[in-house]
Amino acid sequence: MSESSDLVIELDSRIPGKKRAKIYEYYNYIEATSEYKCVHCKSKYKVPKGGGTGSLHNHLKLKHPAIYAQLKEPTTTASENSNSILKFVQPNPTAKMETLTQETFQLKLISHVICSNQPFTLVEEVEFRKLLNYCLGSNSTTIKIPKSANTMKKWIEDFYVEQLSELQEEILQNTSRISFVIDCWTSSNQQPFQGVVANYIDSNWNLRTQVIDLTIMEGEHTGVNIAGSFAHVLDLFSLWDKLLSVTTDNASNMDTFFREFQKLCSTKNLPFLEKDCRVRCLAHIMNLACQDIITSADTETSAEEIESDDENDEDFNQNFSGTGAQAEEFLLEKLRKGVAGIRKSPQRREIFKMKCALAKLPIKTLILDVKTRWNSTFWMMHRCQELRIPYDATIKSVPKLKKYSLSDHEWARISDLVQLLNPFREATEMISNAHSPTLSSTSAVYQVLFDQLNQAVRNTTTRAVQQVDEENWYIKAIRAGQDKLHKYYPSADGLAYIISTVMDPRYKLTWYKATGWQKEWIDACRKQVTNLWKESYQPSNDDVTQIGNHSASTKPSSSSFQDIFQQQMKSFAKSNTEDELKRYLAEGVVNSELLVLENTGIDGALGWWKIHQQEYPNLAKMARDYLAISATGVQVERFFSGGPQLLTSSRQRLTPDVIRKCMCLRKWLLNKKLPSLIRSNINDGLKVKILGEILPEDVPCD
């Protein structure tokens, strides 16, 4: 029986013996195989009759440590919960209280204003000042509360300077090289900015993603201006010597940027070459491919146009009066019109909820896609397909929406398109993980997408019943996606991609062999890796013999035999160092399922290197540099997403300098506040998103 068809039943009803141990809450019981499947991944385990649950506990402990920590927390009764609430709101007289000083109060107030995007005028509001005085109590006479927004602004500006200095020192102290992600953003009050994110791996093998600046752009977002702005950031942080690579989107101005930036590096005698150091955002490439697939499948209409349509839709009726291929072009437009028609009317939304209840389906909000986000189109189709019965019933029950009803043939096409786009969705979510290496998986992602699209073509040509126009439509959409991927795939041959892949113990050069790459190309990859190793990371002869020479100079040998022995050990040390790369490549790849390492605090490739860095001390430096490179610009996009929260309708007059400082400070403070347990839960959440029904953050849903 396949995994998708496993019969999963509720634990509290039909599990043999009605097992009540808390550990069973984290597993589903599969009746057909008498196994327990983890609700957070696909792992399955059998528990013998009368046997212990050690295997279930060990799985959570090794694979999901944050969740296991929750399991081990003692349970509380309702009365205990009530008491804990009282303890929370009532001060504990025996607890050691933090000494309240002007400095600590100032830091807490700044953190509140910045992290919750409060206006500076908050400190001028009478009720807020009353609240502060009440909380300060007897300290209200010694603690200075800012009287005006200008004072609050001054506090924030001074704090920004302090935090910037700390960040500069932290990054400079790191010994590995740094890879950058840059992108441009225009705020809602029409101010141009450039966001700069630094990625590096620290000495404990933590992948650090740090926003370092939001520079104010001078003029338009031209490649020359972007290069000058980025160079200014490198000057500010003194990071020219640590520069390794730059990840950007695929806009045409970035071609100019790299040509200009390469010239700037040349003037500083830095070996920065576009072909080796440029990383094209893979998420953006997949977005372009999916947009081409969708465009070839339908005539696009933006969400804004749909929401503003009046109820008559006369123009649409005229366009939709065609037949055959012309009518098929408007498949997604019909779906958009239907979704928009239901969403914008409270009465129709109530009808839809009622139809969901009658169909015994969960009540969920229909999703209207956004033109620039292909994944929103995917989720729109996926949600409508999931709720097809209540959706159809609602459309047919509203006279003005009947013209948007879809036939069985059209629903089949929606299903085909969802299936075609689903691998792109999974790949996007996987490479958007900011806590583990992503560039090393780029070639593998491309390969999977090509395989999926090729399989879709084969499935189409082998259908028993196939209409000619449908086959043309489907194959045309597939070819559009393939063409776009092929356009950017050669960029994955760059040095940064090759080194990252080889330094990932899950791939090495073995991945290229396993996926059928030509021997000549694999040999060329090996040569590039070897050359970089010898030129930049392999220690020189002087470094290898330094310890031996030091020993010989401090303690003279007593016999010729001892001299011979020392020479033999020097020769062995030299040979062992030279063979680091060869030994690493000669060993087999590591099973990715075994890369969750207990007691390291890190999983995946970084955890493997943390354990083996003593075995490969010099090669580990190479891995630290290249595994930090980001395959996407997701990190800087997430940074920009905080802009609308800051620039509300009442704060459109904020100056570019204030926007810059507030957004950077917020990111820095939140990074410091995020504990390791929350980071672990975030990682687990990403895995659940890929397998379950959780929507990504950027899916428009209310």
Structure explained in plain terms:
This protein has 702 residues and is α+β, with helices and mostly antiparallel strands. It folds into five domains: 3-72, no CATH class; 102-156, no CATH class; 174-279 and 629-688, 2-Layer Sandwich (Nucleotidyltransferase, domain 5); 286-493, no CATH class; 538-588, no CATH class. 57% of the residues lie in helices and 7% in strands. It contains 33 helices and nine strands. The strands form two sheets. A five-stranded mixed sheet has the order 7-6-5-8-9. The protein has a four-stranded antiparallel sheet with strand order 1-2-3-4. Residues 1-18, 299-329, 547-558 and 674-702 have low confidence and may be disordered.
Short description:
This protein is of the alpha+beta class. 57% of the residues lie in helices and 7% in strands.
> Distance N terminus to C terminus?
38 Å
What is the topology, as strand order, of the major beta sheet?
7-6-5-8-9
How would you sum up the global shape?
A: globular
Q: Would you count the extended β strands for me? A: 9
Q: Beta-strand level of the residues, as a percent range?
A: 5-15%
The main pleated sheet reads as: 5 strands, mixed
Radius of gyration: 30 Å
Quaternary state reads: single chain
